[in-house]
Amino acid sequence: MKESKYSKFFIFQIVLSLATVLAVILPIFLSRVPWPDLARNYLEHNGLRDSGARNLVSAIYLGYRAFDTLGETIVLLVAVSGTISIISHSGLSQAKGFGKGEIKKHTNNSISGFRRTELIDVVTGKLGPIVLIFGLYLMLFGHLSPGGGFQGGVVVASGIVFMALGSKTDSSTWLQETGALAKIEAAGFLFIVLASLSGIPGGFGFFGNPLSSSGASPVISIIVLNTIIGLKVGAGLGFMCIAMLGKVE
Amino acid sequence: MTIIIMILLIVLSLYTLSSRDLLYGVIALSAFSMLSATLFYIFNAPDVAITEAAVGAGVSTVIFAWAIRSTERKDQE
Amino acid sequence: MIEQILLIILFLIGFWGIIAKKNIIKKIFALSILNSSVLILYITEGSKIGTNAPIMEEGVKNVVDPVPQALMLTAIVIGVCITALALAIAFRLYRYTHTLDIDKIHRKLHDEPF
Amino acid sequence: MSHSDIIFAPIFLPLLGSALVFCGKSFFKGRKAKLIEYSAVFIGLGLPWIVLFYLLPFILSGTTIQLVIGNWFGGVGIIYRFDGLAWLVIFLGFLIASAAWIYTLGAGPRGLGFNAIFLIQTAALAATAMTADLFNLFVCLEILGITSYVLIASSEKPGAFLASFSYLMISATAMVFFLVGLLGLYRLTGTLSYEGIAAGLKILPGEGGITAIVSLSLIVAAIAMRVAVMPLYGWLPDAHALAPHAISAVLSGVLIKTPLFALTRILIILPGGIEAGRLMGYAGAATALVGVIIALAQKDTKRLLAYHSISQIGYIVSAWGAAVTAGLSTPAGLTLMTAAFLHAMYHALFKGLLFLTIGTTTDLAGERDVYKLRGAAIILYRGGEKFPVTLLCFLVGALAIMAIPPLNGYASKAALSYAFKGSWQASVLFAAGIGTTASFIKLSRIYWPQKKINQSSPKTGTIPGKVSGSVQISQIFLAIMCIASGIFASRISLIVKKLLSNGIIDTNRVPPNLFSIQNLEKTAITVTAGIVLFLIVSTGSGKKILSLIRNRPRNFQGLFLSFSLGMFGLTLWMIYKS
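^ Those are the sequences you sent over. The predicted structure of the assembly is below.
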């Protein structure tokens, strides 16, 4: 494909696109306008009071703009179930269909088929639980320190993958059973949607915080959301990674 | 400091895109993610740094490694 | 200023990779580089107005703007989701055509009966 | 307001439904799971209808509900706005989604994952129609995008994966540009809501200068890519042609129009938006003509329909652009916008119908080539359709898109030409109408009886083809909607106008007579010219030209080149005009 790769027309196309893109993004990347401090000033003074979270990023992520976070978890859900359905070769009917038998079979086969060494066994097997605990910490203390549901969930997912890699083929733990992970993910999604509705009966609105007037600290809702999102994300990503490991031939 | 990291990022991204072996590209991309996580930490964004490290260096590396193992490793260019 | 110029270069490298690289997995690499360059731009610019991380411990003042950080959390996640899906599709394309070259894939699938 | 939260019902009910589908599948098996699935789909697609009709009187009386989600601080929180435009777009989305879902019962894609993703897509459509926050718009567009990549790929055709991949790459890149534009606007104004940005820009010296203009043009370009306006349409034909039929109906019926109407909210409020709308309107008129020329050249049935989607979206965008230019609060702008929405809705109905009927036919015949497939009516008869439902429904759809009275296509095209009266766009659209007629004569030839009994029947034998009941129901439903909405077009257009005006303008004027002699004459001319054009392109040299158009080089980097050029052109235009 030499001639098509180096054809003059091709290079011309590339140069032209790059030049136009450069011209278009230049004014924004080089903008000298001072960064606005409206939102920052408001949040610095009221963020802690409004949401109860010391971590202002968490306050925005799960408070002010929690609806975006819902959208993000939806994107993740669709990506996970779409990816699994596309790679499992069986169409959407099996997607998330948790073709339990099927995917589990793949998983076990593959992980046994994986070229394993003593090092992988020991390191991943022993490290797995520690990583899981770190993930839980990130999840539960996301309102105080950096971290949060999503980050915790990702770490939990890598813990799950570690444990899947580390365990011997026949002694798979319940976490690796994709059925359990799928259940956690589905239930997590249902709980997130229900949590978003929980403010409506009390008159706080969609995504309103039902605790905001009951005297309890509003931060509880952030902790709850963090936990659910973390579990859901961890289960979903873990499921996807295990399914992928299962496809390695 | 930040400028050095950014230059490193550029070098890594060029290496990612030009390496013949895609697996090296994945490793470089994962290093790219770790470096940008460092950058986020320097710029007072610890949350984003944790996410980038967990996602960029963790999950996406696993996915890329899977894709390359199940397709082919050499770039035929 | 130098930072912004470096970020523009990074952005252009990503865009160049998406168009000019023939290998579809490299195109996906390039997409994540492109995404990262914008993420870094948001964070660097957003941190210009403060000196502290946006975590309101006692006595912390003059924090950076937390809004771009929260937005970028969402953008990172969406980015990795798109990446995962793109790789899954690339895997299936490879299964059908046994190549990762976009032009060859185009040619092979062009006469495919529907 | 007691009903202010209920506006979110079109979003959370489908989400709840999809969550229940996932849960039902992973916790139960067999009949219980099926039961939960169907009730979840009912929650997701059925209940929102009740909410929509409950809200209709409020919206008709001019009420606009605007609130910050969760009653947080508006400067950081997400603002949603429910008005006539949102109601109409959501109505359209649920209408097509319901019909398409019924079709999937019979013809697939089946499976629980599909239902859940389909419901999520519907929810995202509703959210896109209502959002008044730029970053939330980004998230909604990403959800729409990622669900469509998965749904397009779910047809399991090799080409569909390539189409899905191209669409994914171009739209992910476009969304990166969207983020860059968002950064530009945020750093100028410090807020993300449309109103906040508009207010912030107005107090800046020079309304933000070049940064604001470029940011806006990046955002507009990213959305225009989704709408598939002229230079940015390259991803659409393959994606729509190779998706499962029901998904094609939803994609070209609703998915490419929702971002357009969401863009309206941005353009009418931001400085410089009017100029972007004007250019998009011009591009739309060009799209209508070019799209139909390429469509005429196609030989694959569904690809022909997909290019017609591009052409018809051109009609809509040209009227929409003119409406944004004139301003929605002027009578002329309102008439144009009404025509644009009417055509969007009617196009969704008849194009959905066409995709479904053609899909049924080609599936049964096992052949998609316009030049090869003949005698499809007999194949359908053999497929168990004693009464030619599919054929009749196809005829309704084809006549509607050819704008034959009294079908709905006639009504909306008459409304368009009334709104455009005397301007150059009217003649462009008229020319496009001729091409449409010609290409649908070409397409309908697949139903003409075969001259000789040829040997292609083994293909029919391989497929245990049968037209199932739900396929017929959804087709009949859409066909009846096409006819009814054509007959009651004047009333519908009054309601649409009233909804779009939000009670500002008195709309109790007599609507233009759609069935005037002038319009009928015009239709007769169009049809005659269409037949002549068809005869011309059926000649040897005509076929040669068509195959030249059909086989023009298309490749991956061309998509990106046209995207960057389109974006650059838009930016230059806006700088020049400001």
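Chain C touches chain D through 36 residues (CB under 8 Å). The CA atoms of residues 18 and 27 of chain C lie 5 Å apart.

Shout if you want it in another format.
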